Queue: 3 jobs
Job 1
Amino acid sequence: MKELIEQAWEHRELLDERATREAVLATVDALDRGEVRVAEADADGVWHVNQWVKKAILLYFPLQGMQTLEAGPMEYRDKIPLKRGLAERGIRVVPPAVARYGSYIAPGAVLMPSYVNIGAHVGSGTMVDTWATVGSCAQVGEGVHLSGGVGLGGVLEPVQAEPVIIEDHCFIGSRCIVVEGVRVGREAVLGAGTVLTASTKIIDVTGPEPVVHVGEVPPRSVVIPGSHTKRFPAGEYQVPCALIIGQRKESTDKKTTLNEALRLF
């Protein structure tokens, strides 16, 4: 499948061939079942993007025609069907949550009224709370809690761009925004309203001198919104950042509430 998709990416006329179309459809179906992923970590915990899988998603759109989809009294008009077979997969999906075909939702995950886009991966035991959004290709680990209104950005192009990654057992507080390929390390806690982009300074203020991270939250960090002073031609102003104010304790239960984690600090 990979070879056929790579060829079709460079020569779109190959989409007229049956073997190429079948490779694209089979890849998206494998995504839906969790047999392939847009990104995955190696034995050392380093994440790598499977660019050919993202290419398959992009090639899937022109192969699909617009259709009317019905879910009870609701009507949709789209190219991509909704995810099916939820009971057989052991997934709880609360109306009116939407998971698109081509996303993977592991057994034991719970979707409150929320949205999961194509290419996304949601691990076992994860809660996607009300009005949370898991963007296209975003990777969410096991035992994660995405609180109400969380927004995980999606990315399809450029194909080499890394998606947002939330590793196992993280707690993402209400109305947090994580975009542009930021990675949140295992068991980290983000306080409500934290915004992380590829250029956001994530400043560890727990020691005598600040330590700045960009694009990555270290594992087990407890993070809250903050600001830092930046000089502009018109003067000095406060710009948003994120502050690491401590480390999640070993004794803290992995399903702790955000308030319990922050109360330690």
Note: Residues 124 and 176 are 21 Å apart (CA to CA).
Job 2
Amino acid sequence: MPWIWSALMPHPPVLIHEVGRGREIEASDTLEGIKHLVSGLRKPDLLVILSPHQPYAPGALFVNSAKSHSGSFALYGASQVKIEAQSPAEDMKNIIDHLRKSRIEIYSAPVEDITEDQGSTVPLHFLKGEWGNLPAVIIASPIGLTPREAFQMGKALADFRSSKNLALLASGDLSHRLTQNAPAGYEPEYAQKFESAVEKALRENSPDEIYGLDERVIERAGECGLRSVMAMLGLSAGGKITVFSHEWPFGVGYCTALCELAGKNEIPAPVMLARETVKRLLTSSPLPENGDEIVSSPLWNNRKACFVSIKTKDGDLRGCIGTLSPVQESLDMEIIANAVSASTRDPRFPPMSEDELSNAVFSVDVLSEPEHVESISQLDPEKYGVIVSKGYRRGVLLPDLEGVNSVEQQVQIAAMKAGIYDLDGISLERFTVTRYKES
């Protein structure tokens, strides 16, 4: 199971200091709940966001098919607070195909500007604050589904298999009619009954309490997050959901909750293959002849370049070898070859011994095809790796490395690795990576 967690988070822009300008303290319980929720939260490879503020698709799950998303809080007087995220087309296709096979109706269309989608931007703002940069995202809206269909969609997602670690962010506010100054009117009887049912459903991780509600209660509560909650319950069946906060300071129900799922300790297939290859090498066992000997994965069908990195549990580098263009006939064979080289042929270190395996942490970076750039203004050390060439010398540095905080630093390190000390006349290429790593 690739899902490492699911979470419920509200999305009022007033929670963001630059928007609230002090009013956010009126929702102090919610802010504290979000703080507990995101603190130390494991960053997934891919984050699926369910936002009720994406387009409405009657009878279907809407999936935003744009390859990139950007937005700000300009509508609330804070244009300087911005969100940018990428959506991988292949992962999106795989999830859509899986849901369709599970008889979930899907409608998709590209919407790059998510400024009006507070259901995505508000949670992403808090996650960005915790992680520094955002993972790949897939943004969808379950509003077109019935609550039961949303629950079934969550169950279908739970059966989705991937070599990547996935997480679900269920974005949604609850009743909008809890107090006399609430934005959608005042329906205390229905609103409070709805709030109680949702909180009990989350704490018991069961949809039964919600299924027992009269349709009139749901309608009169004026909610926007019920389907997000139901999808979370469907995905999280059998797990323990922790409710961190539940309040309604502006007449709207805000609830924060987290379920850490059983898949949180699973090792991605590329890393599992790299570790097993090195283990066999150091124990004088026959090396794998293909990845399926260790773990089957659709990734093996690709022909890609990759780097295998080995560190100690203290974070010290122990070996790193890779290819900038594919050498082997498939990605699994590329990983096997580079795992052998990283553990025994990195000229900076002596060959590894079997005793070191228990203290080793593996990661595998799968590279995109490098592209030439004209200047360092086209580089970003968090997003892109860099290749620096001059004459017959060629140095490379992977992206998103601890301690590499500027383009100039990234280029200088890559150049020095190749023995290039004069940067005049260098040629630059950039590439992206999909990173698979052990916890």
Note: The chain has three domains: 3-264, 267-367, 368-439.
Job 3
Amino acid sequence: MNRDIFIKNLTGDRIEMSPKGRCANELSVEEFENGYEPFFDMIFEIATTDISGISGYGEFDEDNQAPFATFEEFVRETFNEEQEGYWHNWTQMFETSFLKKDYFDKIFAKIMKYAPFCEGQRYLANNNTFFVNMIVDEAGKAYCADWGRAGIMDFLMDFAILDLNKPYLLVPEKLWGYARKKDIEIKSFKERFLCMAYFKGLATLMWHASIDDLESCESITRSINELEERINKL
């Protein structure tokens, strides 16, 4: 089944698959400051989708199934050098790219440290909430326009991607206040956010290292390195 049709069937009328409006990447810092709540509302709305008929974790495969039994398996298989396709034998990049083994091992260890907090956290996530992939309509409502990497995982992944994309917007800091204002309990928030952020950050760093995008690699590394201090201040 086509991915968009699958997502539409899964979410019903709550998710607009062909949104109209302005690319969210065009928003200024001030515009986001004044209108970030619709982005957060959107992610929480996606996360309330009934996924009781779907088992597992991970990005949906070609059959729209989440292929991994546990969150830890999802993480380990994401970085498995024996996988088929583009990432087969990817560890060769340690010798040929910006990505170095000691740094990879350091961040991977942090993911594993916090991974137990994410076991059992199963929600529909867009998993591609970079601002270039989102639309804001005239009323200020936010929409995801690309569902190609959607899957079952902790919904904090979608917030972590927002922050990875533009850390100067202070997404986790805003989310902390938003949740208190809305009386939303997010158990083990700090540990889960760090896990999702390190997971997506490391995967994104690998991609940019694989295409020799040095500027993006440096930006991602800086964001990863500064995150824990930011989160611990909450």
Note: DSSP finds ten helices and six strands in the chain.
